[in-house]
Amino acid sequence: MQDEHIFYNALALAEDGSYLALKKARARHGSWNEAWQRQGNREVDPGKEASRLGERGVRLLLREDDGYPPMLREIPHPPHALYIKGPLDASGMQVGIVGTRKATPEGKASARELARELAGRGITVVSGLAFGIDAAAHQGALDAGAPTWAVLARGLDAVYPASHRRLADDMLSRGGALISEYPFGSGPRPYRFLERNRIVSGVSRAVLMIEVPARSGAQATARFAAEQGRDVLVVPGPARHPNFRGSHRLIREGAALVADARDVLAELGLELPLPEADISPETGLIRSFLRTVPDAVSIDEIAERANLPPRVVSEHLTLLLLEGKVREEAGLYRNIVE
Question: Helices 133-143 and 165-173 sit at what angle, rounded to 10 degrees?
Protein backbone atom coordinates (compact mmCIF):
# COMPACT_ATOMS: atom_id res chain seq x y z
CA MET A 1 0.00 0.00 0.00
CA GLN A 2 1.38 3.42 -0.96
CA ASP A 3 2.02 6.17 1.57
CA GLU A 4 -1.00 8.26 0.56
CA HIS A 5 -3.27 5.28 1.15
CA ILE A 6 -1.62 4.39 4.46
CA PHE A 7 -1.90 7.93 5.80
CA TYR A 8 -5.41 8.48 4.47
CA ASN A 9 -6.58 5.40 6.36
CA ALA A 10 -4.80 6.54 9.53
CA LEU A 11 -6.29 10.02 9.29
CA ALA A 12 -9.75 8.60 8.57
CA LEU A 13 -9.46 6.53 11.75
CA ALA A 14 -8.31 9.54 13.75
CA GLU A 15 -11.21 11.64 12.40
CA ASP A 16 -13.81 8.86 12.82
CA GLY A 17 -14.45 8.84 9.08
CA SER A 18 -15.77 12.41 9.03
CA TYR A 19 -16.09 13.54 5.42
CA LEU A 20 -15.91 17.22 6.31
CA ALA A 21 -12.92 16.89 8.66
CA LEU A 22 -11.01 14.92 6.03
CA LYS A 23 -11.89 17.44 3.34
CA LYS A 24 -10.59 20.32 5.46
CA ALA A 25 -7.38 18.44 6.31
CA ARG A 26 -6.62 17.70 2.67
CA ALA A 27 -7.38 21.26 1.58
CA ARG A 28 -5.20 22.69 4.35
CA HIS A 29 -2.16 20.45 3.85
CA GLY A 30 -2.29 19.34 0.20
CA SER A 31 -1.80 15.60 0.70
CA TRP A 32 -2.90 12.86 3.08
CA ASN A 33 0.71 12.23 4.05
CA GLU A 34 1.25 15.85 5.03
CA ALA A 35 -2.13 16.06 6.76
CA TRP A 36 -1.24 13.09 8.91
CA GLN A 37 2.18 14.47 9.79
CA ARG A 38 0.61 17.77 10.81
CA GLN A 39 -2.48 16.66 12.72
CA GLY A 40 -2.50 12.88 13.02
CA ASN A 41 -3.44 11.10 16.23
CA ARG A 42 -0.30 9.44 17.49
CA GLU A 43 -2.34 6.71 19.15
CA VAL A 44 -3.03 5.36 15.65
CA ASP A 45 -0.25 3.29 14.03
CA PRO A 46 -0.58 3.88 10.23
CA GLY A 47 1.40 0.79 9.23
CA LYS A 48 -0.41 -1.52 11.63
CA GLU A 49 -3.81 -0.26 10.51
CA ALA A 50 -2.89 -0.71 6.85
CA SER A 51 -1.88 -4.30 7.61
CA ARG A 52 -5.28 -4.91 9.23
CA LEU A 53 -6.98 -3.99 5.97
CA GLY A 54 -4.86 -6.45 4.04
CA GLU A 55 -5.44 -9.22 6.56
CA ARG A 56 -9.21 -8.81 6.12
CA GLY A 57 -9.04 -8.73 2.32
CA VAL A 58 -10.05 -5.07 2.13
CA ARG A 59 -8.36 -2.69 -0.28
CA LEU A 60 -8.47 1.10 -0.31
CA LEU A 61 -9.10 3.17 -3.43
CA LEU A 62 -8.45 6.90 -3.30
CA ARG A 63 -10.53 9.14 -5.54
CA GLU A 64 -7.56 9.61 -7.87
CA ASP A 65 -6.89 5.88 -8.28
CA ASP A 66 -7.65 3.76 -11.30
CA GLY A 67 -10.58 1.53 -10.43
CA TYR A 68 -12.46 4.22 -8.49
CA PRO A 69 -15.91 4.25 -10.19
CA PRO A 70 -15.80 7.09 -12.77
CA MET A 71 -19.47 7.99 -12.29
CA LEU A 72 -18.89 8.43 -8.58
CA ARG A 73 -16.21 11.06 -9.19
CA GLU A 74 -18.83 13.21 -10.96
CA ILE A 75 -21.26 13.56 -8.06
CA PRO A 76 -21.40 16.40 -5.54
CA HIS A 77 -19.26 15.45 -2.52
CA PRO A 78 -17.76 12.22 -3.87
CA PRO A 79 -16.14 10.03 -1.21
CA HIS A 80 -12.46 10.77 -0.66
CA ALA A 81 -11.84 7.03 -0.81
CA LEU A 82 -13.59 3.69 -0.87
CA TYR A 83 -12.89 0.61 1.19
CA ILE A 84 -13.71 -2.43 -0.94
CA LYS A 85 -13.94 -6.14 -0.34
CA GLY A 86 -14.34 -8.23 -3.47
CA PRO A 87 -13.86 -7.28 -7.12
CA LEU A 88 -15.29 -3.96 -8.28
CA ASP A 89 -15.53 -3.63 -12.05
CA ALA A 90 -17.28 -0.34 -12.80
CA SER A 91 -16.88 -0.62 -16.57
CA GLY A 92 -20.36 -2.09 -17.00
CA MET A 93 -23.79 -0.77 -16.06
CA GLN A 94 -25.07 -0.57 -12.51
CA VAL A 95 -28.65 -0.06 -11.32
CA GLY A 96 -29.52 0.71 -7.72
CA ILE A 97 -32.58 -0.99 -6.21
CA VAL A 98 -33.82 0.46 -2.92
CA GLY A 99 -36.94 0.65 -0.79
CA THR A 100 -38.31 0.31 2.69
CA ARG A 101 -36.91 -2.04 5.31
CA LYS A 102 -40.50 -2.87 6.33
CA ALA A 103 -41.43 -4.20 2.92
CA THR A 104 -44.51 -6.28 2.14
CA PRO A 105 -44.10 -9.83 0.82
CA GLU A 106 -45.25 -8.54 -2.55
CA GLY A 107 -42.63 -5.78 -2.53
CA LYS A 108 -39.83 -8.17 -1.67
CA ALA A 109 -40.96 -10.60 -4.35
CA SER A 110 -41.04 -7.75 -6.88
CA ALA A 111 -37.54 -6.58 -5.91
CA ARG A 112 -36.15 -10.09 -6.13
CA GLU A 113 -37.70 -10.79 -9.52
CA LEU A 114 -36.69 -7.47 -11.06
CA ALA A 115 -33.14 -7.84 -9.75
CA ARG A 116 -32.93 -11.39 -11.09
CA GLU A 117 -34.03 -10.35 -14.56
CA LEU A 118 -31.75 -7.30 -14.70
CA ALA A 119 -28.75 -9.16 -13.31
CA GLY A 120 -29.37 -11.95 -15.79
CA ARG A 121 -28.81 -9.41 -18.55
CA GLY A 122 -25.45 -8.20 -17.31
CA ILE A 123 -26.58 -5.29 -15.13
CA THR A 124 -24.98 -5.09 -11.70
CA VAL A 125 -27.55 -4.59 -8.94
CA VAL A 126 -26.45 -2.16 -6.20
CA SER A 127 -28.17 -1.76 -2.84
CA GLY A 128 -27.49 -1.28 0.86
CA LEU A 129 -27.74 -4.79 2.41
CA ALA A 130 -30.57 -3.58 4.66
CA PHE A 131 -33.66 -5.58 5.59
CA GLY A 132 -36.59 -5.61 3.19
CA ILE A 133 -36.15 -4.43 -0.38
CA ASP A 134 -32.34 -4.21 -0.25
CA ALA A 135 -31.83 -7.83 0.81
CA ALA A 136 -34.42 -9.06 -1.70
CA ALA A 137 -32.64 -7.21 -4.51
CA HIS A 138 -29.27 -8.71 -3.59
CA GLN A 139 -30.85 -12.16 -3.40
CA GLY A 140 -32.46 -11.72 -6.82
CA ALA A 141 -29.08 -11.00 -8.37
CA LEU A 142 -27.66 -14.08 -6.67
CA ASP A 143 -30.57 -16.11 -8.07
CA ALA A 144 -29.30 -15.12 -11.50
CA GLY A 145 -25.78 -16.22 -10.57
CA ALA A 146 -24.60 -12.63 -10.99
CA PRO A 147 -22.45 -10.32 -8.85
CA THR A 148 -24.13 -7.61 -6.78
CA TRP A 149 -22.68 -4.71 -4.79
CA ALA A 150 -23.65 -3.63 -1.28
CA VAL A 151 -22.76 -0.19 0.08
CA LEU A 152 -22.51 -0.30 3.87
CA ALA A 153 -23.09 2.49 6.37
CA ARG A 154 -20.25 1.27 8.57
CA GLY A 155 -16.67 0.01 8.29
CA LEU A 156 -16.05 -3.29 6.55
CA ASP A 157 -14.67 -4.94 9.67
CA ALA A 158 -18.25 -6.09 10.32
CA VAL A 159 -21.50 -6.59 8.41
CA TYR A 160 -24.62 -4.61 9.27
CA PRO A 161 -27.15 -5.92 9.99
CA ALA A 162 -25.25 -8.84 11.52
CA SER A 163 -27.97 -11.28 10.43
CA HIS A 164 -27.01 -10.56 6.81
CA ARG A 165 -23.48 -11.89 7.24
CA ARG A 166 -24.36 -15.04 5.28
CA LEU A 167 -25.93 -12.98 2.51
CA ALA A 168 -22.77 -10.86 2.34
CA ASP A 169 -20.63 -14.00 2.17
CA ASP A 170 -22.80 -15.35 -0.65
CA MET A 171 -22.36 -12.07 -2.52
CA LEU A 172 -18.59 -12.25 -2.20
CA SER A 173 -18.54 -15.88 -3.31
CA ARG A 174 -20.40 -14.88 -6.50
CA GLY A 175 -17.90 -12.15 -7.40
CA GLY A 176 -19.80 -9.30 -5.76
CA ALA A 177 -18.41 -6.52 -3.59
CA LEU A 178 -18.92 -4.81 -0.25
CA ILE A 179 -18.20 -1.07 -0.32
CA SER A 180 -17.83 1.59 2.37
CA GLU A 181 -16.32 5.04 2.73
CA TYR A 182 -15.65 4.44 6.42
CA PRO A 183 -12.58 2.94 8.11
CA PHE A 184 -12.63 -0.08 10.38
CA GLY A 185 -14.40 0.51 13.66
CA SER A 186 -16.90 3.03 12.25
CA GLY A 187 -20.33 2.01 13.48
CA PRO A 188 -23.70 2.39 11.70
CA ARG A 189 -24.73 5.83 12.91
CA PRO A 190 -28.01 7.26 11.56
CA TYR A 191 -26.42 9.97 9.39
CA ARG A 192 -24.16 7.39 7.77
CA PHE A 193 -27.14 5.71 6.14
CA LEU A 194 -27.91 8.98 4.37
CA GLU A 195 -24.28 9.41 3.36
CA ARG A 196 -24.28 5.81 2.13
CA ASN A 197 -27.31 6.46 -0.08
CA ARG A 198 -25.46 9.01 -2.24
CA ILE A 199 -22.96 6.28 -3.11
CA VAL A 200 -25.67 3.79 -4.08
CA SER A 201 -27.07 6.30 -6.57
CA GLY A 202 -23.65 7.70 -7.46
CA VAL A 203 -22.29 4.42 -8.84
CA SER A 204 -25.55 3.67 -10.66
CA ARG A 205 -26.92 4.69 -14.03
CA ALA A 206 -30.45 4.60 -12.58
CA VAL A 207 -32.15 3.91 -9.25
CA LEU A 208 -35.23 1.70 -9.07
CA MET A 209 -37.51 2.51 -6.13
CA ILE A 210 -39.76 -0.22 -4.70
CA GLU A 211 -42.08 0.61 -1.77
CA VAL A 212 -41.01 4.08 -0.68
CA PRO A 213 -42.91 5.50 2.32
CA ALA A 214 -43.37 9.25 2.61
CA ARG A 215 -40.37 9.59 4.92
CA SER A 216 -37.61 7.09 4.32
CA GLY A 217 -33.99 6.65 3.37
CA ALA A 218 -35.15 5.60 -0.07
CA GLN A 219 -36.67 9.06 -0.52
CA ALA A 220 -33.24 10.51 0.24
CA THR A 221 -31.69 8.19 -2.34
CA ALA A 222 -34.16 9.48 -4.93
CA ARG A 223 -33.15 13.06 -4.14
CA PHE A 224 -29.48 12.20 -4.46
CA ALA A 225 -30.16 10.42 -7.76
CA ALA A 226 -31.99 13.44 -9.18
CA GLU A 227 -29.20 15.80 -8.08
CA GLN A 228 -26.64 13.50 -9.66
CA GLY A 229 -28.49 13.31 -12.97
CA ARG A 230 -29.46 9.65 -12.55
CA ASP A 231 -32.74 8.21 -13.79
CA VAL A 232 -35.29 7.61 -11.04
CA LEU A 233 -37.61 4.67 -11.73
CA VAL A 234 -40.55 3.74 -9.53
CA VAL A 235 -42.73 0.65 -9.17
CA PRO A 236 -46.25 1.82 -8.25
CA GLY A 237 -48.60 0.11 -5.80
CA PRO A 238 -51.98 0.36 -4.08
CA ALA A 239 -53.03 3.99 -3.81
CA ARG A 240 -53.69 3.98 -0.06
CA HIS A 241 -50.85 1.76 1.13
CA PRO A 242 -48.41 3.78 3.27
CA ASN A 243 -45.42 2.01 1.70
CA PHE A 244 -46.23 3.70 -1.62
CA ARG A 245 -46.93 7.28 -0.56
CA GLY A 246 -43.40 8.34 -1.40
CA SER A 247 -43.40 6.20 -4.53
CA HIS A 248 -46.45 7.91 -5.96
CA ARG A 249 -45.12 11.35 -5.02
CA LEU A 250 -41.95 10.60 -6.98
CA ILE A 251 -44.04 9.59 -10.00
CA ARG A 252 -46.03 12.83 -9.77
CA GLU A 253 -42.73 14.71 -9.68
CA GLY A 254 -41.58 13.11 -12.91
CA ALA A 255 -40.00 9.76 -12.04
CA ALA A 256 -40.55 7.04 -14.62
CA LEU A 257 -43.21 4.47 -13.77
CA VAL A 258 -42.08 0.91 -14.37
CA ALA A 259 -44.00 -2.34 -14.04
CA ASP A 260 -41.42 -4.89 -15.10
CA ALA A 261 -37.85 -5.38 -16.28
CA ARG A 262 -38.78 -4.48 -19.86
CA ASP A 263 -39.70 -0.99 -18.69
CA VAL A 264 -36.40 -0.64 -16.83
CA LEU A 265 -34.41 -1.74 -19.87
CA ALA A 266 -36.34 0.67 -22.08
CA GLU A 267 -35.60 3.57 -19.73
CA LEU A 268 -31.93 2.63 -19.89
CA GLY A 269 -32.03 2.56 -23.68
CA LEU A 270 -31.49 -1.19 -23.73
CA GLU A 271 -34.14 -2.72 -25.92
CA LEU A 272 -33.24 -6.25 -24.91
CA PRO A 273 -35.95 -8.89 -25.29
CA LEU A 274 -37.05 -10.69 -22.17
CA PRO A 275 -38.05 -14.29 -22.72
CA GLU A 276 -41.46 -15.41 -21.54
CA ALA A 277 -41.03 -17.01 -18.15
CA ASP A 278 -41.94 -20.66 -17.75
CA ILE A 279 -45.25 -21.02 -15.95
CA SER A 280 -44.69 -22.71 -12.61
CA PRO A 281 -47.25 -25.20 -11.26
CA GLU A 282 -48.19 -22.71 -8.53
CA THR A 283 -48.78 -19.93 -11.03
CA GLY A 284 -50.85 -22.27 -13.19
CA LEU A 285 -53.07 -23.24 -10.25
CA ILE A 286 -53.63 -19.61 -9.29
CA ARG A 287 -54.49 -18.55 -12.83
CA SER A 288 -56.78 -21.53 -13.36
CA PHE A 289 -58.77 -20.66 -10.25
CA LEU A 290 -59.01 -16.96 -11.11
CA ARG A 291 -60.36 -17.81 -14.55
CA THR A 292 -63.26 -19.72 -12.94
CA VAL A 293 -64.52 -16.92 -10.66
CA PRO A 294 -66.23 -13.76 -11.97
CA ASP A 295 -65.44 -11.61 -8.93
CA ALA A 296 -62.22 -10.39 -7.35
CA VAL A 297 -61.07 -12.64 -4.50
CA SER A 298 -58.68 -12.45 -1.56
CA ILE A 299 -55.29 -14.10 -1.15
CA ASP A 300 -56.73 -16.33 1.58
CA GLU A 301 -59.52 -17.58 -0.68
CA ILE A 302 -57.07 -18.28 -3.50
CA ALA A 303 -54.76 -20.09 -1.07
CA GLU A 304 -57.63 -22.28 0.16
CA ARG A 305 -58.89 -23.19 -3.31
CA ALA A 306 -55.41 -23.74 -4.78
CA ASN A 307 -54.20 -25.57 -1.63
CA LEU A 308 -51.15 -23.31 -1.35
CA PRO A 309 -49.69 -21.30 1.57
CA PRO A 310 -50.80 -17.63 1.50
CA ARG A 311 -47.15 -16.55 1.31
CA VAL A 312 -46.63 -18.56 -1.89
CA VAL A 313 -49.86 -17.20 -3.38
CA SER A 314 -48.75 -13.65 -2.56
CA GLU A 315 -45.38 -14.11 -4.29
CA HIS A 316 -46.91 -15.54 -7.46
CA LEU A 317 -49.66 -12.92 -7.56
CA THR A 318 -46.97 -10.24 -7.47
CA LEU A 319 -45.33 -11.75 -10.53
CA LEU A 320 -48.69 -11.98 -12.31
CA LEU A 321 -49.38 -8.35 -11.43
CA LEU A 322 -46.03 -7.31 -12.92
CA GLU A 323 -46.81 -9.31 -16.07
CA GLY A 324 -50.24 -7.70 -16.38
CA LYS A 325 -52.04 -11.03 -16.03
CA VAL A 326 -54.11 -10.11 -12.95
CA ARG A 327 -55.50 -6.91 -11.48
CA GLU A 328 -55.55 -5.85 -7.83
CA GLU A 329 -58.66 -4.06 -6.54
CA ALA A 330 -58.61 -2.92 -2.90
CA GLY A 331 -56.66 -5.96 -1.79
CA LEU A 332 -58.63 -8.40 -3.96
CA TYR A 333 -57.45 -10.01 -7.20
CA ARG A 334 -59.11 -10.87 -10.48
CA ASN A 335 -57.97 -12.41 -13.75
CA ILE A 336 -57.45 -10.15 -16.77
CA VAL A 337 -59.11 -11.79 -19.77
CA GLU A 338 -56.55 -12.40 -22.52
Answer: 30
